[in-house]
Design brief:
Radius of gyration of chain B: 21 Å
Number of helices of chain A: 5
Shape of chain A: flat
Largest interface: A-B, 57 and 58 residues
Structural class of chain B: mainly alpha
Strand content of chain A: under 5%
Structural class of chain A: mainly alpha
Helix content of chain A: over 70%
Shape of chain B: elongated
Oligomer: heterodimer
Number of strands of chain B: 0
Chain lengths: ~110, ~210
C-alpha cells in the first residue's frame, strides 16, 4: 500500500512537472531573458546621451526598444506566450483600448503637431 | 499514516486543477487578475498621457531636463527589472512545489522592490528640496501623480509578496499555492512593465 502511495505521488509530481515544462521557460531561460532586458536598458540609456547624433532616428529607436522590453516581459515573464489565448485577449483589449483612447486624446490636444 | 498521505496527495491534486472545473476550463482567479491588469492599462495610460501633455508646463522651477538624474534612475530601473527575474524564479519554484526556494526568491523580490521604493522616496525628496513641490506647476503635479501612483502599486506589491511568504511559512495558502504565487507574480510584472514605459517616456525622451 505504501509503495502504491509513493507511486501515485510520483506520478502526480511527474505529471505536474511535465505540464509546467510546456508552460514557460527553464530557470536558465528566464536568466537569459533578464540579461537581454538589462542589455536593452543599457542601450536605451546610451541612446539618451546621443540625441543630437541620432537626429530623427532617436525617437523611433528608443520607442522600439521600449516596446521590445515591454513585450519580452509580457510574453515570457508573464507567460502570455505559453498561456491560454483568453488571458492574452483580456490583457490586449485593455491595452489596445488605453492606447487608442489616449492617442485620440493626445491628437485632440495637438500633442504631435 | 498512509491514509493521511493518500488524502493529502488527492487534496493537492484537486487544488492544482481547481481551474479546470470552471465553465471556461481556466482558473477564474487568473482570469480576474488579467482583467484587472487590462483595466490598469487605462489608469496608467491616462496618467502617462496627462504627463506627456503637461511636461513642458513649468512655472519657472527646474524642468525635467534639469531635474533628472539619469544614472540614478537607470540603476533603479535595473533593480526593478531584476526583481521581475527573481519573481519569475519564485513562480518557477512554486510550480515545482519547492517552498524553500519560493520563499527565498519572494524575499529577494521584496528586497529589490524595497530598494526601488527607497530610490523613489530619495528622488522625490531631492526634487522637493530643489523647489519642485506637488502643486508648483502642471509639470510637477502630473509627474508626482504618475510616479507616485506607480510607487503605491510597488508598495502594494511588496505587501502582497510578504503576505504570500507569511502564508507559505504558516502553510495557510488558500487553494493552489503555485497559482497564488503566480497571481502575485502577474501583478509584480505588470508594475515592472509600467515602469518600462515610464522610464523611457518620462526620463529618457527630452522635453
Amino acid at each position: 500500500m505504501t509503495d502504491t502511495v509513493h507511486t501515485d505521488a510520483a506520478q502526480v509530481a511527474h505529471d505536474d512537472h511535465a505540464d509546467h515544462d510546456d508552460h514557460g521557460l527553464s530557470d536558465l531561460g528566464y536568466v537569459k531573458v533578464a540579461i537581454f532586458l538589462a542589455a536593452i536598458t543599457a542601450i536605451e540609456v546610451a541612446l539618451s546621451y546621443m540625441v543630437d547624433d541620432l537626429g530623427a532616428l532617436f525617437l523611433p529607436l528608443l520607442l522600439g526598444l521600449m516596446l521590445l522590453k515591454f513585450f519580452m516581459v509580457v510574453l515570457y515573464f508573464m507567460h502570455l506566450k505559453f498561456d491560454n489565448k483568453l488571458f492574452s485577449l483580456l490583457f490586449y483589449i485593455g491595452l489596445g483600448l488605453a492606447v487608442g483612447v489616449y492617442l485620440a486624446a493626445l491628437f485632440t490636444f495637438r500633442f504631435f503637431s | 499514516m498512509t491514509d493521511v498521505a493518500v488524502h493529502t496527495t488527492a487534496h493537492d491534486d484537486h487544488g492544482d486543477h481547481a481551474g479546470h472545473h470552471t465553465s471556461t476550463g481556466l482558473s477564474n482567479n487568473k482570469l480576474g487578475m488579467w482583467m484587472f491588469l487590462g483595466s490598469e492599462c487605462l489608469l496608467f495610460g491616462g496618467l502617462i498621457s496627462t504627463y506627456m501633455l503637461y511636461r513642458g508646463r513649468t512655472a519657472g522651477e527646474s524642468g525635467p531636463d534639469q531635474l533628472w538624474d539619469i544614472p540614478f534612475t537607470s540603476a533603479s530601473s535595473f533593480v526593478l527589472l531584476m526583481s521581475s527575474l527573481t519573481m519569475v524564479l519564485a513562480v518557477s519554484a512554486a510550480k515545482r512545489k519547492d517552498d524553500r526556494n519560493t520563499n527565498l526568491w519572494l524575499c529577494v523580490t521584496a528586497l529589490l522592490g524595497s530598494l526601488f521604493v527607497a530610490g523613489q522616496v530619495y528622488e522625490f525628496t531631492t526634487f522637493y528640496r530643489e523647489g519642485v513641490g506637488y502643486t508648483t506647476s502642471l509639470f510637477s503635479s502630473s509627474f508626482y501623480t504618475l510616479t507616485g501612483f506607480h510607487g503605491v502599486h510597488v508598495s502594494v506589491g511588496l505587501i502582497l509578496l510578504l503576505a504570500t511568504v507569511g502564508m507559505i511559512v504558516k502553510n495557510r495558502v488558500p487553494g493552489d499555492k503555485a497559482e497564488v504565487v503566480e497571481l502575485v507574480g502577474l501583478y509584480w510584472h505588470f508594475v515592472d512593465i509600467v515602469w518600462i514605459l515610464i522610464f523611457t517616456l518620462v526620463y529618457l525622451i527630452p522635453t
